[in-house]
Amino acid sequence: MACAECPLRQKPAFRTFSQEELQFVTATKADHITVPPRADIVRADEVGGPVYTLFEGWAVRYHRLPSGARQILDIVLPGDLIGLASATLGIVRHSVQAVTPVTLCVLDSARLSQMFERHPAYAFALLQTRVEEEQRSDMRLALLGRAKAEQRIAYLMIETFDRLHRRGMANGGATCPFPLQRHHLADAAGLSRVHVARTLDLLRRRRLAEIQDGVLVLFDRPQLAALAGYRSPGTGAGRRVIV
To answer: Which is nearest to 204 in space by CA: 183, 182, 219, 222?
Structure first.
């Protein structure tokens, strides 16, 4: 897939390239690969690995704890960067695993440092994207520490819906693809699978939301947002950088 023809670049969530920036990104792309479900794209403590852009499919970023339990740190969606720590710190402390079949743009991490010298506006926009990601991470951490089970699941649902909607990847006003299974939700929300099942049943019976055959349906978004304490990023959110 040539960068100039990339359909992700046309999505409303992503910042428009200048011609010079597009040339730089095109030169940075080294390959385009496919990874099957349940395969690790990045492994914790990997040194000097490549950087990827998720082109198609879903993945999860996670830590494996000494007990063997897994904590999902984030859901990785098309347009998101994977392994940026390789280019900046030389080592990645988390793992990333494919949930569905995924395709990835492989980037030459050695060239990314040149972005700050040659394309400072582009580099600053990338920094802005990372800061917004940090703010999302802060909220999830607060939820894990203090929120009830139904609030955690409701927040995960509506946040994921909005992330997809901004990318132009929601099916409509109230539905979006949602290939995550109960064990993914349990690992993301810090709950047991039994607790997740009960919470999903509660949200369905209250006609707030449900997951049907890999599709998330929001029956009552305002009430679901109120339950989760969710605030939409709105128009103040910057357009994401895609590399």
So the answer is: 219
Using 50, 70 and 90 to split pLDDT, how confident is the model at 238? low
pTM value is: 0.91
Q: Name the residue among 54, 2, 6 with its Cα closest to residue 26.
A: 2
Backbone dihedral angles phi then psi of residue 221, each to the nearest 5 degrees: -60, -45
- Looking at the DSSP bridge assignments, the partners of residue 81 are 53
Q: Is the pLDDT of residue 153 over 60?
A: yes
How far apart CA 110 and CA 100 sit, in angstroms, is 29
- Which residues have CB under 8 Å from 152's CB, separation 6+? 143, 144, 189, 190, 191
User: Rounded mean pLDDT of 49-68?
Assistant: 93
Asked if the model's pLDDT at residue 113 lies above 90, the reply is no
- Helix, strand or coil, per DSSP, at residue 201: helix
The pLDDT of residue 234 is 57
Name which of 32, 8, 41, 39 is nearest 22 in CA terms: 8
Domains belonging to the chain, first-starting first, are: 3-131 (2.60.120.10), 147-232 (1.10.10.10)
CA distances from 15 to 7, 9, 43, 125 (A): 13, 8, 29, 8
> Taking Cα atoms as reference points, which of 158, 145, 138 lies closest to residue 228?
158
Q: How much of the chain, in percent, has pLDDT values that exceed 70?
A: 95
